[in-house]
Write a structure and sequence with these properties.
- The complex is a heterotrimer of chains A (265), B (333) and C (296).
- Chain A is globular.
- Helix content of chain A is 32%, strand content 28%.
- Chain A has a single domain (3-262), classed as P-loop containing nucleotide triphosphate hydrolases (Rossmann fold, 3-Layer(aba) Sandwich), CATH 3.40.50.300.
- In chain A, helix 4 packs across helix 5 (145-157) and helix 5 (145-157) runs parallel beside helix 6 (175-191).
- Chain A starts with a strand and ends with a strand.
- Chain A has 9 helices and 12 strands.
- Chain A has helices at 45-53, 75-81, 97-102, 117-129, 145-157, 175-191, 203-209, 227-230, 233-240; strands spanning 3-12, 22-30, 34-38, 60-65, 68-69, 82-85, 163-167, 195-200, 212-217, 220-226, 242-248, 255-262.
- In chain A, a hairpin with a 6-residue loop joins strand 11 and strand 12.
- Chain A is α/β, with parallel strands linked by helices and 265 residues long.
- Chain B has 333 residues and is mostly helical.
- Chain B has helices spanning 3-24, 35-38, 49-82, 95-108, 120-140, 149-173, 176-186, 196-213, 216-224, 226-231, 236-258, 264-276, 280-304, 313-332.
- Chain B starts with a helix and ends with a helix.
- The mean pLDDT of chain B is 89.
- Chain C is an alpha/beta fold and 296 residues long.
- Chain C has 2 domains: 42-159, Nitrogenase molybdenum iron protein domain (Rossmann fold, 3-Layer(aba) Sandwich); 167-294, Rossmann fold.
- Chain C has helices at 2-36, 47-55, 89-94, 107-115, 128-142, 145-166, 196-203, 222-228, 244-251, 261-264, 283-294; strands at 42-44, 62-65, 99-103, 120-123, 173-179, 188-191, 207-208, 217-220, 232-237, 268-272.
- In chain C, the strands form 2 sheets. In chain C, strands 5, 6, 7, 8, 9 and 10 form a 6-stranded mixed β-sheet that branches.
- In chain C, helix 2 (47-55) links the parallel strand 1 (42-44) and strand 2 (62-65).
- In chain C, helix 6 runs parallel beside helix 11 (283-294).
- The model of chain C is unreliable at 1-8 and 29-35 (pLDDT under 50).
- Classes of the chains: A alpha/beta (265), B mainly alpha (333), C alpha/beta (296).
- The A-B interface holds A 14-16, 50, 53, 55, 74-76, 78-80, 82-84, 86, 88-96, 99-100, 102-104, 106-107, 109, 111-112, 114-116, 120, 152, 155-156, 159 and B 1, 3-4, 7, 80-81, 84-86, 143-145, 213-214, 217, 220-225, 227-228, 230-235, 273, 277-279, 281.
Chain lengths: 265, 333, 296
């Protein structure tokens, strides 16, 4: 199956002379994939997502969207195919939820165009898909953490992109919201056919919804492949310096990771 | 939900208000005049006091007030979104300090040059604003990846402080009357008594507003975050460059016309946001229109309250703006 | 015991306070005596008072002046000790003056001079009469009573002569402008209803068009000028001389107010020279030039 988005041996440094934060990484996202990118803090997950979305250009290597080089596309063209959910959304001014979601239509609108009925319908669908229709007219800053995250995901959905890249979507949420978001993502992938890459610290989230994993450490890919093959105690140890038990949970059938102790290298 | 209709309705309402203020303002003043006489073309111009009060003393200052008010308010909106900081003003990035230093130097060096009919002080203040903009821009883009808004803010604030120190130094060296004149210029004044300075400022302000017209959706996205704006199709660096340069140049032109009149660039955008929300497609044009009306009204106060004495219009805006600003801060926290 | 202590304390306090009074009284008397001595080392921080000092014959006693002093030419070789807002207190004290001429707003300097017991003569601008009052007061203070009186009387006579010359003539409504932005009609400052400029204009036979404003100077709008319709506009220009082209450039902005009689009848008059705004002995020169302008 041809890759929809393919980072081919990419490396990246933020400024000349600065160290490489991503080094020789190759990642393939095929159509309909749900890939988790795992790694400790500073492993280069967020940077890899930026390279995949095209908001940063690799210092070497290339990113292909279908059969086109991503950096040949304008930002607008790229944004019509790749949507991103950033880790945090901090508004400078107060917007209503629907306004945030409608901003997702930006790459589809010409400079002086105003959102028409189609755009509004797409935004409403995005709200519905994330279960936030009732929040449409609420000020964004009044929403709870989980509600905010769902609205931001809806804004990304409103981009009508086939690819969705999420940067630690559950990082600041409590257990209930974590479950809510993970089931939402799974549903979007399965029912709406959205191809996804999710960077996360949460091994159990990754284990429960991702079919493939990419393990990153210090800017390198440590291992990549189907979740069941990649999520091993050896890899967890190499990734986090933590001894862990990996089991299959009897009720959900998901793999679960139970950290046992930290080991020094 | 029809977004286009809402945009048009709200902006039109602001336009009606601004036009009403601009039509009314020249008819009132410290002297009462007969409009019939002012518009009576059978009376020779040289002996028609009413017409001269209307067309020389009042209309130019109303037009200058509208132009300066609209520009400062719109530039405030653009810079607040660019810096993602609701407390930013058109003067945050050093433009007004540069302009004031230029004006100060023109006064103390007794510059009498003029270019295309623009006199020394406006010319020097505009040159000063260009220098300040250039320095801030160069500092902020010296980092390899585009324009850093943090550096922009720091460089602007630092330059403001540095130029203010230079202003004090020049003021210290200047003689008393010169220092007083320069200080007076810094309080702002719109009694231009001539249409030429307004016409001279127009082209630049027009170009800046053309740039502003392309920005509203981008400004919305920047308000949500640069990273997410980029992911939603905004070319961040060119967008930031355009926003910074157009807002700075427009501010420079406005300041050279009316002096560094404070608080317009922050009060007006905030009042407008309180009324209509944060969508820049409304906030930007509505702020320009409301800013025009607001400054014209402040100038009306400046020329009437203590007549025949004038209160500097910058003092009026500060007296209204200061308490408002504090209220805003308290309300935020 | 406690009561005793208290009584004792009160006694000590009483003695202390009394002796303090005595000491300060002696100091006051001595200081007053010292103050009455004829000063030999005068520092003047006020340029127009410097001119007055030289006019009344106290010039040789002046040992230092402010940075703005240029008249009379003798002062140009004297040391300078700062000016209105930045007096160099250290240098002033180091020069060991026995009289310092200060301006009324220099409160810090006053405190410092008091602390080191240097007497000072405090001056503030006033009306035209105040020039003569200052002359005579300084004559008394510096030991030139007669010459000061002579100079003051000569000035009064000259002023009266102008007053008599213009008496009975129609008094044109006049706007006396002393500052505006070059090349435009912006930030116009004019003499208002009091102060020596207003008095000079009145003596010279003009009716101050802003006489109802109880201030020495006022910033006025073009609307006010249009509404008040002055017959003459006298504008003071600090330049020493203007050639025809310069003069035309200075006058041209006024043409926008063509309904003002002064503009229409070409009676906007530029008086050049920096001495015009100095309330000192040269004031008569300004009055005579104004009178000639108003009553040619």
């Amino acid at each position: 199956m041809p890759a929809l988005l393919w980072a081919d041996n990419v490396s990246f440094r933020y400024a000349a002379g600065a160290p490489l934060v991503v080094e020789g990484v190759t990642v393939r996202l095929s159509d309909g994939a749900l890939v988790g990118i795992l790694g400790p803090n500073g492993s280069g997950k967020t940077t890899l997502l930026r390279l995949l979305s095209g908001t940063r250009r690799p210092s070497s290597g290339r990113v292909l969207l279908g059969d086109r080089a991503l950096d040949q596309l304008s930002r607008r063209e790229a944004a019509r195919q790749i949507a991103v959910v950033p880790q945090e959304t901090e508004l400078a001014f107060e917007y209503r939820a629907i306004e945030i979601v409608l901003m997702g239509r930006h790459p589809h609108l010409s400079m002086f165009a105003v959102e028409g009925p189609d755009d509004i319908r797409i935004a409403e669908d995005a709200l519905a898909a994330t279960g936030t229709s009732h929040l449409a007219e609420r000020p964004f800053h009044e929403l709870s953490g989980g509600e905010k995250q769902r609205v931001v995901i809806a804004a990304a959905l409103a981009q009508s992109a086939q690819l969705l890249l999420l940067d630690e979507p559950t990082a600041s949420l409590d257990l209930g919201y974590q479950l809510e978001i993970s089931s939402l993502l799974l549903r979007l992938n399965q029912d709406h056919g959205v191809t996804m890459a999710i960077s996360t610290h949460d091994l159990n989230l990754a284990a429960s919804i991702c079919r493939e994993l990419v393990l990153m450490r210090d800017g390198h890919v440590l291992a990549a492949g189907p979740t069941a093959e990649v999520l091993t105690p050896e890899h967890v140890k190499a990734l986090y310096d933590v001894e862990a038990d990996v089991q299959v949970h009897s009720e959900t059938g998901h793999m679960t990771v139970v950290p046992v102790r930290r080991i020094s290298r | 939900m029809n977004i286009r209709r809402r945009l048009i309705t709200v902006v039109a309402a602001f336009a009606v208000f601004a036009i009403a203020v601009m039509l009314w303002a020249p008819t009132v003043g410290s002297t009462s005049i007969s409009l019939a006489r002012a518009f009576d073309r059978t009376i020779p111009w040289d002996s028609n006091v009413d017409a001269q009060i209307f067309f020389v003393a009042r209309l130019p200052r109303v037009l200058a007030g509208a132009l300066v008010g609209a520009t400062l308010a719109a530039a405030g909106v653009v810079l607040q979104a660019l810096l993602r900081n609701p407390l930013a003003t058109p003067f945050t990035l050093g433009v007004s300090a540069g302009a004031s230093l230029g004006a100060m130097l023109a006064v103390t060096m007794k510059l009498e040059l003029s270019l295309l009919g623009i006199t020394a002080i406006p010319l020097a203040s505009f040159a000063g604003s260009l220098v300040a903009t250039g320095i801030v821009y160069a500092l902020a883009s010296s980092q390899r990846r585009g324009l850093s808004t943090n550096v922009l803010l720091l460089a602007g604030v630092t330059l403001n402080a540095f130029f203010s120190a230079l202003i004090l130094f020049v003021q210290y060296l200047a003689d008393f009357a010169e220092a007083l004149r320069a200080i007076r210029w810094m309080m702002g004044g719109l009694d231009v008594a001539d249409y030429f300075p307004i016409i001279a400022a127009l082209p630049l302000i027009f170009v800046a507003f053309a740039a502003f017209a392309m920005m509203p959706r981008t400004l919305n996205l920047l308000s949500v975050g640069a990273e997410s704006a980029a992911a939603k199709g905004v070319d961040i660096v060119p967008a930031q460059r355009l926003a910074f340069l157009s807002a700075s140049l427009a501010t420079g032109a406005a300041v050279s016309l009316g002096g560094p009149i404070g608080f317009i660039g922050i009060i007006v955008p905030h009042l407008v946001r309180l009324m209509v929300g944060s969508d820049h497609r409304i906030v930007l044009p509505a702020s320009a229109l409301f800013g025009a009306a607001f400054l014209v009204l402040c100038d009306l106060v400046a020329r009437m309250v203590m007549s025949p004495l004038e209160i500097p219009v910058g003092v009026v805006t500060a007296l209204i703006g200061g308490p408002f600003f504090l209220w805003l801060l308290v309300r935020k926290s | 015991m406690i009561k005793m202590l208290n009584t004792k304390n009160t006694k000590i306090t009483k003695t202390f306070v009394l002796s303090l009074f005595f000491v300060s009284f002696v100091a006051f008397v001595l200081k007053d005596v010292a103050a009455q001595e004829t000063p030999r080392r005068i520092i003047s921080l006020v340029p127009n008072v410097t001119e007055i000092l030289f006019a009344i014959g106290a010039g040789p006693q002046v040992i230092a002046v402010s940075t703005y002093d240029v008249e009379p030419p003798e002062v140009r070789s004297l040391p300078t000790v700062g000016a209105l807002v930045d007096p160099d207190t250290e240098r002033i004290i180091a020069l060991r003056p026995d009289l310092v001429i200060t301006y009324g707003s220099q409160a810090d300097l006053h405190t410092q001079l008091k602390a080191v017991s240097i007497p000072f003569f405090d001056y503030r601008h006033g009306g035209l009469d105040h020039i003569m009052v200052t002359m005579r007061a300084l004559g008394q203070r510096t030991g030139h009573v007669e010459q000061a009186d002579r100079v003051a009387r000569a000035l009064e006579t000259a002023i009266d002569a102008v007053r008599n010359r213009v008496a009975g003539k129609p008094r044109p409504k006049t706007l006396l402008v002393f500052g505006r932005e070059p090349g435009s009609l912006r930030n116009i400052y004019a003499s208002a209803g009091k102060g020596f400029l207003h008095d000079m204009l009145t003596v010279a036979g003009g009716e101050d068009v802003l006489k109802d404003i109880d201030k020495e100077s006022a910033q006025i709008s073009t609307e006010t000028i249009l509404a008040r319709r002055p017959d003459v506009i006298i504008e003071l220009n600090a330049a020493n001389r203007l050639n025809d082209a310069d003069l035309e450039a200075v006058l041209s902005p006024w043409s926008a107010l063509s309904s003002v009689p002064a503009v229409r009848n070409k009676r906007v008059i530029i008086l050049t020279g920096s001495g015009l705004t100095v309330p000192g002995p040269r004031v008569i020169d300004g009055i005579e030039r104004m009178a000639r302008a108003l009553h040619p």
